[in-house]
Design brief:
403 residues, alpha/beta, six-stranded parallel beta sheet, 17 strands, elongated
């Protein structure tokens, strides 16, 4: 008797899930502890000549009303109809897994609760970091620590773009077009370049680490559109790379979240993460630093994570795996009140007295750049930084946080 699985969506990720379940079936079945069979694939489209035709359906009710189905994997994206489908399935005791970060960020706590009520599971490993296993380790392995920080390179498109700009001296518009031509960036790249994609992912991770709902809309987000060649020149001068990071930090019992470009020093493990790769770093009070690294997107990588959830849900059939994520809203502090060091660029020459307002500064020079004063500040809040800039009497060209 095989475990019967349904896959919702036959796009990039969904077709990858089906491919793995068919081509690696004996391996997947051995890991699951029983034979695994794809009984249905749901899609509104037809696929003439594709082997999927033999299992293709167009009506979700066909799937959810079949008593043989034990696991449904969703790869459609968007909040609806994914939320409606997930809720219906879980209420019938059918375990559900997804790669859909929009669904998980908005409805994760609710769907986990419904799954618990019906002895089912709602898993979402592929919603953050593509094929990187980070969700399950947080839930099941890293259970001894209080985490005071989780930071990550969570978007492969922006990391690819920043790497090209850094290594090849290319400008933003050129690398964006290149990323679109290679399929790394969408035609409308706003979700990537403005930090929204990373924001949803850090919201999910923070909700798991701090065990309460962290809303995407509550996270301040700065994208990479204002990063230019001069910034990379200064970053190199201080031994740093520039990375778009999503971060959640606990300080004095308060939680701060942020998505923004950061200077990452060479001794930080995130420094060497280049191209389309992602990495997530956690710091625990007992464990210290641990990092997860790998392909953060792509058909096979993301599909691999979905299949890992399918296998786990088959293994745990009839038993709910506890996930501590309450629907109660996590109180978030103003990210501007978290003290960071900054690389600050001011126009013209700035006197030593004026620089004194920034604390113990380290001046920075970069080859080929003149007519400005650049330096690293002491750790300070945004309000303290703004006050110091005002006291200097100089125009602020750019400020970038240091991780």
């Amino acid at each position: 008797m095989a475990a019967k699985v349904a896959v919702l969506g036959y796009g990039t990720v969904g077709s990858g899930v089906v491919k793995i379940l068919w081509e690696n079936n004996s391996h997947v079945s051995r890991r699951a502890g029983e034979a695994v069979e794809v009984k249905y694939v749901l899609d509104l489209r037809d696929f003439p000549g594709d082997p999927v035709e033999k299992v293709l359906v167009h009506d979700f009710d066909t799937i959810v009303n079949d008593p043989e189905i034990s696991v449904i994997a969703e790869a459609m994206g968007g909040l609806e109809p994914a939320y409606t489908f997930a809720k219906k399935a879980l209420e019938k005791g059918i375990s559900f897994c997804t790669s859909n970060k929009v669904l998980v960020e908005a409805k994760g706590a609710e769907l986990i609760s419904i799954a618990k009520e019906h002895d089912a599971n709602f898993f979402f490993e592929a919603s953050v970091g593509g094929g990187i296993p980070v969700i399950r380790p947080i839930i099941q392995s890293l259970t001894a620590d209080h985490f005071d920080e989780i930071s990550g390179i969570l978007n492969g498109t922006t990391n690819y773009m920043l790497t090209k700009m850094d290594k090849e001296g290319l400008d933003f518009d050129y690398v964006l077009k290149d990323a679109q031509e290679k399929g790394y960036a969408e035609r409308n790249p706003e979700a990537d370049i403005e930090g929204h994609d990373a924001g949803r992912k850090i919201a999910i991770l923070a909700s798991l680490v701090y065990e309460k709902q962290v809303d995407f809309e509550a996270i301040p987000m700065e994208g990479i559109t204002k990063i230019g060649s001069e910034d990379f020149a200064y970053a190199k001068a201080v031994g740093c790379a520039i990375k778009l990071l999503g971060t959640a930090r606990r300080k004095d019992g308060k939680i701060y979240t942020l998505v923004a470009p950061f200077l990452v020093p060479s001794d930080d493990p995130l420094y060497a993460v280049e191209g389309v790769y992602n990495a997530i770093k956690l710091h625990g009070d007992m464990l210290g630093n641990v990092m997860f690294y790998g392909q953060g997107a792509g058909k096979e990588a993301t599909a691999s994570a979905v299949v890992s959830d399918i296998v786990q849900e088959i293994r745990e059939r009839g038993r709910h795996v506890e996930i501590l994520w309450s629907g109660e809203k996590q109180a978030l502090e103003d990210a501007g009140e978290y003290p960071f060091r900054y690389l600050v660029r001011l126009s013209g020459a700035v006197s030593a007295d004026a620089l004194g307002a920034f604390g113990d500064v380290e001046t920075v020079t970069a080859e080929g750049i003149s007519g400005e004063t650049a330096f690293l500040t002491a750790a300070m809040t945004e309000a303290e930084l703004a006050e110091a800039i005002a006291k200097s009497g100089a125009e602020c060209i750019k400020k970038i946080r240091m991780n």
